[in-house]
Design goal:
This protein is an all-alpha fold. It is 62% helix and 0% strand. The longest helix has 16 residues. The relative contact order is 0.20. Helix 1 crosses helix 2, helix 1 packs antiparallel against helix 6 and helix 2 packs across helix 5. It is globular, with a radius of gyration of 14 Å.
Length: 135
């Protein structure tokens, strides 16, 4: 059933992300979401990423794993400001992510998934994962 509702569920999520971040378009929100997901992905092992991906709805799961360079080294979680700058650097001129991008995407995600499942998964991931997805 989740695949039958995938488009509608994603539309609801991306509108939440757009509105929470006070962006003008869903295209801007998509770039922000993609940047936040990739920033998080860089910080966890593949096995942990698969656990996390399973807590996501289908379209977000696809965005999370899309175009993954498996040879890219894992980097440690750092402060929110540093990780936000990484989000904002994604796709340079096409990215208008606000300073609240990570928290905005986290809030939109929490509105659109089973939070209990998400929190159980995050608790199994490396230190820093829970704080990353704090809204």
């Amino acid at each position: 059933m989740e695949y039958r509702r995938a488009s509608a569920d994603f539309d609801r999520f991306i509108l939440d992300a757009r509105d929470l971040a006070a962006l003008q378009t869903t295209n801007q929100a998509y770039t922000m979401v993609q940047a936040v997901l990739q920033t998080f992905r860089r910080r966890i092992e593949i096995s942990d990423a698969l656990l996390f991906a399973n807590a996501l709805p289908p379209v977000l799961r696809a965005i999370f794993i899309d175009d993954w360079d498996l040879e890219e080294p894992i980097v440690p979680f750092s402060g929110r400001v540093a990780m936000t700058r990484e989000v904002q650097a994604f796709r340079g001129d096409h990215n208008v992510s606000p300073d609240t991008a990570i928290a905005d995407v986290a809030a939109a995600l929490r509105r659109n998934v089973d939070e209990a499942v998400l929190d159980r998964v995050l608790a199994r991931l490396p230190q820093g994962a829970v704080d990353f997805w704090r809204a």
